């Protein structure tokens, strides 16, 4: 009865739009009959409110930094991002890897693919798979999700954090660490002692096993094809870093 009354009251004051109704319905589907009404639910008066509520919930279900960076990388790309690209850039993101591997150092310094799969499954109602630049990519199906990610996450990043995010995208497309060991710093004293890293001051080199991003390649028919993903996405991330920062893309 309490839940039913809450829904009736919400419908009276809310901005009733199809996407709003969809988001509210998805939230209601997670309820049990014995669940109390979350106080934050009473503040959901718009589509953006619902999206923020959804994101905050998913940050508690998944690793908070992993979820935030994943949606930021996807949103920062003009036309979406492929699964390989997202797993590669997350594997280059030392902040994400530190938050995922808090209690041990994995033998392979790469994000487990299952982590993004779980996030994608929870977002499947709000993202779409499409063809872009001759590749299969995922992206938001509605503009409001893009706007919320931009306003809640990308625009609120510190200068250092934005540099990290865009540099990771540049490194991924430029193959900066392709076949090479990328250094990372272990900050946790327990891990430093556990893995005998005192002499190196906690620094380790590790291959991230990123996929190749050539400018051109030969397809199955023997024809030369250009890497449109790299050619269309890389320049914007270079520009985001600094207007005076010149990096060759070949």
TrEMBL record:
Domain NWD1/2-like winged helix-turn-helix, first and last residues per copy: 65-157
Pfam families given in the database record: WHD_NWD1 (PF25469)
Keywords: Repeat, WD repeat
UniProt protein name: NWD1/2-like winged helix-turn-helix domain-containing protein
């Amino acid at each position: 009865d309490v839940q039913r009354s809450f829904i009736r009251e919400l419908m009276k004051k809310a901005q009733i739009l199809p996407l709003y109704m969809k988001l509210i319905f998805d939230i209601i589907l997670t309820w049990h009959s014995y669940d109390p009404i979350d106080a934050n639910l009473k503040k959901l008066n718009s589509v953006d409110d619902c999206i923020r509520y959804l994101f905050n919930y998913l940050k508690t279900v998944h690793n908070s930094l992993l979820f935030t960076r994943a949606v930021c990388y996807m949103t920062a790309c003009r036309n979406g991002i492929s699964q390989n690209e997202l797993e590669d850039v997350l594997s280059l993101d030392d902040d994400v890897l530190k938050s995922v591997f808090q209690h041990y150092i994995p033998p392979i310094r790469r994000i487990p693919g299952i982590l993004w799969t779980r996030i994608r499954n929870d977002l499947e109602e709000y993202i779409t798979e499409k063809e872009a630049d001759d590749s299969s990519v995922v992206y938001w199906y509605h503009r409001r999700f893009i706007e919320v990610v931009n306003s809640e996450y990308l625009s609120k990043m510190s200068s250092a954090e934005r540099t990290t995010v865009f540099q990771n995208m540049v490194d991924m497309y430029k193959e900066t660490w392709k076949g090479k060991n990328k250094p990372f710093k272990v900050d946790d004293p327990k891990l430093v002692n556990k893995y005998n890293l005192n002499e190196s001051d906690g620094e380790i080199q590790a291959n991230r096993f990123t996929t190749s991003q050539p400018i051109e390649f030969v397809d199955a028919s023997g024809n030369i094809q250009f890497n449109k993903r790299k050619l269309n996405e890389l320049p914007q991330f270079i520009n985001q870093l600094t207007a005076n920062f010149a990096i060759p893309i070949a």
